[in-house]
Design goal:
Helix content: 40-55%
Shape: elongated
Number of helices: 15
Strand content: 15-25%
Structural class: alpha/beta
Strand order of the largest sheet: 2-1-3-4-5
Distance between the termini: 39 Å
Length: about 325
């Protein structure tokens, strides 16, 4: 049984390799044309397909939406019974059909032509094989026809959609990611579209996690060390900022204090915060992601970061403990 599983994966991997070669070679122009058509879409991207292709179409629509392209899935059979209103002038349709001859999808073509909706077909037509294959009706009707052909299905009977749906899914992902890159879709854009769940927690902003106001440990440069230690103990963040008004001058951490005590002994108590602080400490901005804060802490082997604005005014402190709830740690 494990040999069967291995063969399935190898057949599908080979189908993906062949697809990648087409995108890099003979299908490059058509692929770029499809991305350009989607980028110019004034409405929404409507992805349609039925059966296993319909399941893949749902996923492609979801991927497009989550990467900044408004998209929806349209069931072709339901479209013929009232849902055609989901297609409007200015939309672009991506139609998935292994055969390219799916009756329910072909029945949508007159409405698409009337609305002047552009069509991208994803079919099993070996369009770029160079063997003179006659195009399917769907590929012929499309403004851009993409080739998702395979040598064989991974099913031992050669019947169940396996390699064909895998290549369709990969091609949909390729279109979505290429389109996101073309539009300059950034990490912060992704965060705005994924506010919930584990992913949303990982993309939380520092400003939503930091300690602010009276919870920020803060001393002046002239503050004597007994009062510095009291402030650190009272605020319980293992660190205190040293400020001139709101402007950050430096920090003193538990580690700094231990090292000073080992080196200077009780004489430390006669020093001021300015004499003991680490000047120009590592800081982070309020709009940075929690992941960036954690990566900086890990890199510098520290447990706290001062959050500052562009003028180095202290806005807050983010502690390693604050990141635990985000599941970054």
């Amino acid at each position: 049984m494990n040999r069967t599983g291995e063969n399935v994966v190898r057949i599908e991997a080979e189908a993906l390799r062949a697809l990648a070669d087409r995108i890099a070679g003979p299908m490059a122009q058509a692929f770029c044309a499809a991305v350009a058509l989607l980028a110019c879409c004034a409405g929404r991207v409507v992805v349609t397909g039925i059966g296993k292709s319909g399941l893949v179409a749902r996923k492609i629509a979801a991927t497009l939406s989550s990467t900044g392209t408004p998209a929806l899935y349209l069931h072709p059979a339901e479209a013929l019974h009232g849902d055609l209103g989901m297609i409007a002038r200015g939309d672009v349709v991506i139609a998935l059909s292994a055969s390219g001859d799916t009756e329910e999808i072909l029945s949508l073509l007159p409405t698409m032509q009337r609305l002047e909706v552009k069509l991208i077909s994803v079919t099993g037509d070996p369009i770029f094989s160079g063997n003179g294959h006659k195009l399917s009706p769907l590929a012929q009707a499309a403004q851009v026809a993409l080739d998702c052909s395979i040598d064989k299905e991974a099913c031992s009977l050669g019947l169940a959609p396996t390699a064909s749906t895998t290549t369709m899914l990969a091609l949909g992902d390729a279109l979505a990611v290429a389109l996101a890159d073309k539009r300059g879709f950034k990490e912060e854009d992704f965060a705005n579209l994924h506010p919930g769940g584990k992913l949303g927690k990982k993309l939380a902003r520092v400003s939503t996690l930091m300690h602010t106001g009276e919870t920020i440990p803060r001393v002046a440069a002239s503050t004597r060390m007994p009062d510095v230690i009291y402030e650190m103990s009272r605020k319980k963040l293992g660190v205190t900022t040293v400020t001139d008004g709101d402007r950050l001058l430096g920090i003193i951490s538990d580690g700094d204090l231990r090292r000073l005590l080992e080196k200077r002994g009780k004489d430390v108590m006669d020093l001021t915060a300015a004499e003991c602080m680490t000047p120009d400490p590592k800081t982070i901005g309020p709009d940075d992601f929690a992941t960036a804060a954690f990566n900086l802490m890990e890199q510098k082997k520290i447990t706290s970061l001062v959050v500052v604005d562009g003028k180095r005014r202290v806005l807050g402190i983010v502690h390693l403990h604050d990141l635990w709830g985000t599941e970054v740690v």
